[in-house]
Structures are given as C-alpha cells and as structure tokens.
Amino acid sequence: MIEAVGLTKRYGAKTAVYNLSFQVRPGAVTGFLGPNGSGKSTTMRMMLGLDRPTSGHVTIGGHPFRSLPNAPRQVGALLDAKAVHGGRSARNHLLSLAQLAGIPAARVDEVLGVVGLHDVARKRSKGFSLGMGQRLGIAAALLGDPQVLLFDEPVNGLDPEGILWVRNLMKMLASEGRTVFVSSHLMSEMALTADHLIVIGRGQLLSDMSVKDFISANSADFARVRIADGAQEQREKLTASLTEAGGQVMSEPDGALRITGLRLPRISDLAHESDVRLWELSPHQASLEEAYMRMTQGAVDYRSTVDQKAGLQQPVHGGYGQQPGYGAPQPPVPEMPQQGWYAPPPPGQNPYAGAPASPVAAAPAAQAAPAAAPADLTKRETSEDAR
C-alpha cells in the first residue's frame, strides 16, 4: 500500500504540492488524474525518493522508498520511457537493471516476451519508436516482479492494440493483489481501466473515491426523449408539461430533448397525460470525461486561445467581389453545439440513482472564446518535401 500524509513540495516561491494525503490500496487499479501542472509527476517522484518533500511524508508498505531493502524487487515504476541509454539494446538495458537488483538473467527474456519486444531485444533502443520505448519501460517496471507498481502515462504512443494490452495488464496485476497506481490524461481509458480515482488540482486533493461515485458526484444523469419530427406543437406541449412538473429541458442538436430532474416513469406519465407519443425515452449517464471537466475546470492553469491570424488577412484585387476569407471579415456563423455535449446542471438529487449525489462545488465555467477568423485562402499548403 502507498500512503501519503500531509505531502508538501515547494520549489522556491512555487508550491507544487500542498498538504496532500491519500492511500493507494492493493487489489485495485487507482487512477491519478489532474490537469497539466497539478503536481502529479512531482508526487510520483516523491513516492520514489527522487524528490524530498518539503514537509509530510509518503511510504510504501509502511516504509519510505529509500529505506526499502532491494527496492526494485518491491516497487516497479515507469516515469520516463526515454530514460534509457540509446546505445544499449533492449536486452542489455534490462540485463544491467537485473544485475544491479540481483534478478536472474532469465527474467529479462521473460519480461521482453510479456511486453512484446522479444524480436527486437538485441536492437539499440535509440531506434525505438515512442510506443516501443513505453513497452521497454513497462518491462523494466515488471522486472523484479514487484507488489507495487507506478506508471506515468503508460499508454502514451501506443497503438490501439497496445492500449488494450496495457489495460488488461493493469487489471491482471491488480487482480493478483498488487498495488497499481496509474497517472493518465486519457479519460476514456481511465474509465475502462481504473477502479478508484485520486484527483488533484494545483497540488491539492480534489477527490478520492471510486470511478462510479466520482461520476455520480460531479454530474447529473439525464433522460433522452424524442418525438415525431416536425411535431412542433407536441414538442412545446411536452416541454411545458415537463417544466411545470419540475424538470429541466434542453434541446439536443439532433432534435431530441435532454431532461433532468424527473424519473423516467414520471416523464412517461406526463407524456401520456399530454397526449404526446414518444419515439424514444432512454436513460443516459455522464461520462468520466464530463465529470472530470466539471470538477477541474477551476484548477486549469494552461488555457488555449483562438488564433486570430492578425495581419495575415489579404484583400482581393479584381472584379470577383468579396469572397469568404478575403478582405473585410465575414459575420461569424453561430456555433452548433456538438452532439451530446452540454455542461450538466449542478449536481443534486440524481433521479436515476437510489441515493442523492453529494453536491460538489464547481468554479464558474470559462467564457466562450471568440470565433476563429476565416482561413486565408491565398496561401497554399506545401509539404516539407516540396520545399
């Protein structure tokens, strides 16, 4: 088990991690989430004794990492897949690590087979792709058959088959009773891999709960309703009836209605009473990504802006008149929201769960960025080869 107590790390005036306390228990895959700059990598470095905390402490199996006897046999980690001597082959790299830890050479060939690098074992690692480097880093973490494993972005650079392999590997390791701690920015993958989540923002703990509870606490489930196309009068009648009953109704881009605050049986009864025929009535649950974005929207340090392409617009000379992308800017076209993407209403009573969801405060959403300027059609894209 990994345990952090009051963990704080400062670099001069910059506080990277502040008063962080949590436990990573064995037998489950624990996801470690947070925006860029939130302190995830710093926290993992302190776990492995690479950085000393300013205050607080972190232990693995009840002991600091530096106090563990023969640590590679107890803890395996992948923090930087490029931390490899490029002139060494994959096998020699692992063999040097095995010799330092007293691990039999036969184990090297075993882990090379596990990660799928057996055929390139004698090739120099400097020629490896990013995905192959990730596999080599995972092999190094598995080398000592440790009970505690830490992975920082383990699927970075992997193809779909590799991502599926890592997912199944993490689950298998956890099913064997090991402690598996995984940092990642891929919410869709974390939703499929992790059992528990630890979320931090600006160095502080935001959430420590199961994936299911996290989604429930930071979003609201909704019902999707569809009626006959073109039946505007029935649509308005149903909307008025649902609103009067306490529901919140929003329109989807495809014409369906998104309803929160009412249970499905109640929605069906109201439609029947209003003499409205439903073509669809289905429950939907928010994704991990939507719940994560809602929780961390106030803890994001790096936000992008729209490229206005200032000074790159060129007027057209000739008798062809104004065309899009030339001369005076064209009036902006209203943005059409993407299918299924709406910020959920403030969490409260979940109409589709047995117990009410815990309210979680969320920072105000950032203002919408201005629409991007029209593209400059006078420029032709050229490849590096053509130049």
Walk me through the structure.
- By secondary structure, the chain is an alpha/beta fold.
- The protein folds into two domains: about 220 residues, P-loop containing nucleotide triphosphate hydrolases (Rossmann fold), CATH 3.40.50.300; about 70 residues, 2-Layer Sandwich (Alpha-Beta Plaits).
- Helices cover about 25% and strands about 20% of the residues.
- It contains ten helices and 13 strands.
- The strands form three sheets. A six-stranded mixed beta sheet has the order 5-6-7-3-8-9, with helices on both faces.
- Strand 1 and strand 2 form a beta hairpin.
- The protein is elongated, with a radius of gyration of 27 Å.
Q: Given the C-alpha coordinates, what overall shape results? A: elongated
The radius of gyration computed from the alpha-carbon positions, rounded to a whole number of angstroms, is 27 Å
In angstroms, what separates the terminal alpha carbons?
Answer: 56 Å
- CATH topology name of the largest domain: Rossmann fold
Helix content: 25-40%
| Major sheet: arrangement of strands | 5-6-7-3-8-9
Number of domains: 2
What is the CATH superfamily label of the largest domain? P-loop containing nucleotide triphosphate hydrolases
Largest sheet: 6 strands, mixed
CATH architecture assignment name of the largest domain = 3-Layer(aba) Sandwich
Beta-strand residue percentage: 15-25%
Helix and strand content put the structural class at: alpha/beta
Mean pLDDT: 83
By CATH reckoning, the class of the largest domain would read Alpha Beta
Annotation field: number of helices: 10
Number of DSSP strand runs: 13
- The parts where pLDDT drops under 50 for at least 5 residues are 333-343, 349-387
